[in-house]
């Protein structure tokens, strides 16, 4: 049995992708071009500045660094406005039951997200109390597939990477787990997350006896 579970946030604990989408689309529209939900798929698990680069590439426009920083800040202010209205009803199915059974069985829990807004989301949805460690975008310098976010989580929990399992909805996140020498469970579609040890479509399919690798 593993000793620690490390969770990505967006797409695993909650679905904040829709709020990222609304905020990025608002920016794109302000710049005079469309941004579709399909385009938004390319931003999942990607850092804020890299997401902006992709958005500007889709719109076929370019700006200097200072303007890009201001645009990212503007998008983030809109995004924060949306997520400030979130509550516990937005936690994805099966997540609370699974987190509860982990705690009852002494398995440590860490967050491993590249989002700089992770703490607000955890607090608003009332899941912060389940976490022994929170590693987010404010604590890392390398984005996934770099293993930094998960290695820091394991270190803070005092657990060997080999005894950790990562839950991820993004391909780059599964690669980060592999690069960290950890087990991984994909949350979503097996076509995208094929490198994971196994894939679930929701936490309703998850139980402690599946944590033996
Ligand atoms: P922020 P995760 C990621 O969260 C999102 O999937 C991605 O779409 C977003 O751009 C990134 O966080 C940065 O978020 O702008 O809030 O710092 O999947 O790593 O939990
Ligand atoms: Mg994610």
Automatic annotation (TrEMBL):
<dbReference type="InterPro" id="IPR006439">
    <property type="entry name" value="HAD-SF_hydro_IA"/>
</dbReference>
<dbReference type="InterPro" id="IPR010972">
    <property type="entry name" value="Beta-PGM"/>
</dbReference>
<dbReference type="InterPro" id="IPR023198">
    <property type="entry name" value="PGP-like_dom2"/>
</dbReference>
<dbReference type="InterPro" id="IPR036412">
    <property type="entry name" value="HAD-like_sf"/>
</dbReference>
<comment type="similarity">
    <text>Belongs to the HAD-like hydrolase superfamily. CbbY/CbbZ/Gph/YieH family.</text>
</comment>
<dbReference type="InterPro" id="IPR010976">
    <property type="entry name" value="B-phosphoglucomutase_hydrolase"/>
</dbReference>
<dbReference type="Pfam" id="PF00702">
    <property type="entry name" value="Hydrolase"/>
</dbReference>
<dbReference type="InterPro" id="IPR051806">
    <property type="entry name" value="HAD-like_SPP"/>
</dbReference>
<protein>
    <submittedName>
        <fullName>Beta-phosphoglucomutase</fullName>
        <ecNumber>5.4.2.6</ecNumber>
    </submittedName>
</protein>
<keyword id="KW-0413">Isomerase</keyword>
<dbReference type="InterPro" id="IPR023214">
    <property type="entry name" value="HAD_sf"/>
</dbReference>
<dbReference type="GO" id="GO:0008801">
    <property type="term" value="F:beta-phosphoglucomutase activity"/>
</dbReference>
């Amino acid at each position: 049995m593993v000793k620690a579970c490390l969770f990505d946030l967006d797409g695993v604990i909650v679905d904040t992708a829709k709020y990222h989408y609304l905020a990025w689309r608002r920016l794109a529209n302000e710049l005079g071009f469309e941004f579709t939900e399909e385009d938004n798929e390319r931003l999942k698990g990607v850092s804020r500045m890299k997401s902006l680069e992709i958005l500007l590439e889709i719109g076929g426009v370019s700006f200097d660094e200072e303007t890009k920083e201001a645009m990212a800040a503007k998008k983030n202010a809109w995004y924060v406005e949306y997520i400030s209205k979130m509550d516990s009803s937005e936690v994805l199915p099966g997540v609370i039951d699974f987190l509860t059974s982990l705690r009852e069985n002494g398995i440590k829990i860490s967050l491993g997200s590249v989002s700089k807004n992770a703490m607000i989301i955890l607090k608003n949805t009332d899941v912060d109390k389940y976490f022994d460690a929170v590693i987010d975008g404010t604590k890392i310098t390398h984005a996934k597939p770099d293993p930094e976010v998960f290695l820091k989580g394991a270190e803070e929990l005092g657990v060997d990477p080999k005894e950790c399992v990562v839950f991820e909805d993004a391909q780059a996140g599964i690669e980060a787990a592999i690069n960290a020498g950890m087990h991984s469970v994909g949350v979503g579609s097996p076509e995208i997350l094929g490198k994971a040890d196994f894939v679930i479509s929701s936490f309703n399919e998850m139980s402690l006896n599946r944590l033996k690798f």
